[in-house]
């Protein structure tokens, strides 16, 4: 039987996983098998540039943490798994999906986005969305267009009234 010291060290890792999931509402599990050291460094840099990160834990630790959190993704915790996390809803998803397109050895498994379990297909759909800043720009452009159209209409109406 394992000593108290070993059990405490294992529990510390499980608690670290639980805290990470509680602190960041968005995580993505992915298979990193086949990534060379250079590709792993490139992935880590891409994630860090987008305020995200990843870490590799033993599946048994992740299963215990997920069971403690009452999250049922144990069927995805087969084979090598890494966990990417970010406070932004889709930052880690975008980086991983784009990286997977360039490097097919990386395989997305499942994600937890805002507390909801998200399958691989949905992760790729989320990755296709524009960034938050892009969406806000689109919204602002649409609102400006309405005001512009209104001003043109009012100007035409004013000119028509002057000509009568």
Give your account of this protein's structure.
This protein has 164 residues and is of the alpha+beta class. The chain is 59% helix and 16% strand. It has a 5-stranded antiparallel sheet with strand order 2-3-1-4-5. Strand 4 (107-113) and strand 5 form a beta hairpin. Helix 1 (4-23) packs across helix 3.
Give the SSE layout.
Blueprint: H1 4-23, E1 26-31, H2 37-49, E2 52-56, H3 59-68, E3 82-86, H4 91-102, E4 107-113, E5 116-119, H5 120-128, H6 132-163
Antiparallel strand pairs: 1-3, 1-4, 2-3, 4-5
Helix pairs in contact: 1-3, 4-5
How would you sum up this structure in a few lines?
By secondary structure, the chain is of the alpha+beta class.
CA radius of gyration is 23 Å
Flag low-confidence runs: none
Number of DSSP-assigned strands? 5
The CATH architecture term of the largest domain is 2-Layer Sandwich
- Approximate strand percentage: 15-25%
The figure for the number of domains is: 2
Give the overall silhouette.
elongated
The assigned structural class equals alpha+beta
Largest sheet composition: 5 strands, antiparallel
Output the CATH homologous superfamily of the largest domain: Ribosomal protein L10, N-terminal RNA-binding domain
Oligomer: single chain
Strand order of the largest sheet: 2-3-1-4-5
- Helix proportion of residues, in percent? 55-70%
Order of helices and strands: HEHEHEHEEHH
């Amino acid at each position: 039987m394992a000593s108290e010291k070993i059990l405490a060290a294992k529990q510390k890792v499980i608690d670290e996983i639980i805290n990470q999931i509680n602190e960041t509402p968005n995580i993505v599990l992915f298979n990193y098998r086949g990534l060379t050291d250079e590709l792993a460094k490139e992935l880590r840099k891409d994630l860090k540039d987008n305020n995200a990160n990843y870490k590799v834990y033993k599946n048994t630790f992740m299963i215990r943490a997920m069971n403690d959190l009452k999250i049922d993704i144990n069927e995805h915790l087969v084979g090598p798994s890494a966990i990417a996390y970010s406070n932004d809803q889709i930052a880690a998803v975008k980086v991983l999906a784009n990286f997977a397109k360039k490097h097919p050895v990386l395989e997305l498994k499942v994600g937890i986005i805002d507390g909801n379990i998200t399958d691989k297909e949905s992760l790729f759909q989320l990755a296709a969305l524009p960034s938050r800043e892009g969406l806000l720009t689109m919204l602002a452009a649409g609102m400006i267009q309405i005001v512009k159209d209104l001003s043109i209409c009012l100007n035409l109406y004013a000119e028509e009234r002057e000509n009568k």
